[in-house]
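Take a careful look at the protein record below. Let me know whether the structure tokens fit the sequence:
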Amino acid sequence: MQRGLNVHSEIGRLRTVMLHRPGGELLNLSPDTLAPLLFDDIPFLQEAQREHDRFAWMLADEGVEVLYLDRLVAEALDAHEGARAEFCERWLSESGVDGRCARAAVREKLDSIADTTALVDKCIEGVRADELDLAPSSLLSLADLMLTHGNAVSPLVVDPIPNAYFTRDTFSVIGRGVSMNRMLCATRRRESIFGDFVFRYHPAYAGVPRWHESGSAYHIEGGDILVLGPRVLGVGISERTQPAAIDSLSHRLLWGEPPSGVERVFAFSIPHKRSFMHLDTVFTQVDVDTFTVHPAILGTLRVFELARGACAGEVRIRQLDGTLDAILAQALGVGGVRLIKCGGGDEIASAREQWNDGSNTLCVRPGRIFVYQRNSVTNDILSRAGLELLEVPSAELSRGRGGPHCMSMAFWRDEL
């Protein structure tokens, strides 16, 4: 395993990446819970796993070391005495289990799981009432009693975390450090626990610089963070990321210790709607001077540059004029940037393939990118533009509204 973190671009040769294989959490989705758990449909688990396994195999075939979230967390918990108990207590506290008996029953269930990886998987999967002893005679508080409806026990005592396979969001590797992100929606905030324990206790990653903390008052998500270069960061002002969070992150990156190396932060204001959920759903970098882009954002973006001011601790902000390609060329320090439109000029194809993450690509090295197989119009355009495509089967994975970039968190990339 490569020790430490090193991500100074979105396109340097990918050496180490973290994934999460979808599991039993998808089986705990139901039509009634889709909206609060941020899903539009229920993926077929076995096919989603086959597709994800194919993605992981394709990464490994490109020479990428594939790490898995649950195993990293388990290794962190096993490496430090008392970490497992600390993890369980924090997970319980953030899971909304308020009844005394229910909480004790859930803790007993967790303590009965000997294998640490299986414990982490159970925390992602959620806890069903039929796994616990919640007989009416044992319910000693109003919070316990409210778990029941008449004589029927509510099916779930602890909700699943079905968005966990989008490992891009809850923390972000920037340079040699990490931003621990505060998620907008309550259903995803427990995901931050996993990353927190990895970067506190894992032998390979403990002690890396932390550029932001999930306990912040303002929300920011990793899909809005693009590492454009060693000294340049792009962040989306989106449905999921607040301007105040970008202020806080930028101040730490520009002025904090140890130095991050970042000298400029570009904030891209995108429409606040589900189909444009994060910055990486509307554009991603695919080569030194090339990006995929959703054409609906062209002409609508406002872009701001944050840099060091004249006085210590001061951050200077200015709004940038010009087209997106000109601004990106300036940020990257290249003569020009090529924007390849998702769906081309076809309005219906563009909207359809944007919904299925046609602009959400993962670059394994300059010009060689992972894409969802289902976006045939966009993929044909990318191929004809000279890019090498690695097409991931995506009939079920795409139902979660996230593509190859969303499903991966780079830990190590070679320098350009």
Q: What stands out?
A: Residues 55-66+163-413 form a domain with the L-arginine/glycine Amidinotransferase; Chain A fold (CATH 3.75.10.10).
